[in-house]
Design goal:
Helices cover 37% and strands 18% of the residues. It is of the alpha+beta class. It has one domain (3-115): Cathepsin B, Chain A, CATH 3.90.70. A 4-stranded mixed β-sheet has the order 2-1-3-4, with helices on one face.
Amino acid sequence: MSCLFNSMSYFFCQDSNTIRQKICNYLERGGTIIEGLDTKLILSFEQPNYIERMKNTNTWGGAIEIQAACTIWNTKIIVYNIRDTKRSKIIFAPYNNINCVNCIHIAWSGGHYEPIKL
């Protein structure tokens, strides 16, 4: 199981497999992850069969899946880099950036995601 999907399940109240499947379905349909760029083109720069590999529960998720989740759940996701002494953060938002319903916080240590419970 991927810690990213487990972290998202804490906030979205769905099991991590369901979240993974919804994100993979969104990517398969060509759902927008970066405005103005074709999702299939972006994924073509990744390893072959990216979505098929992502469907495997042993595959780790990352920025692409976070961005897709933002749009699917209309949620801003703030990822804190806790291995950085400055505690830098990356803010992901739905591509349309219209009226985010929620904002969630996730810690990233360089190899592990963990929900931040505020």
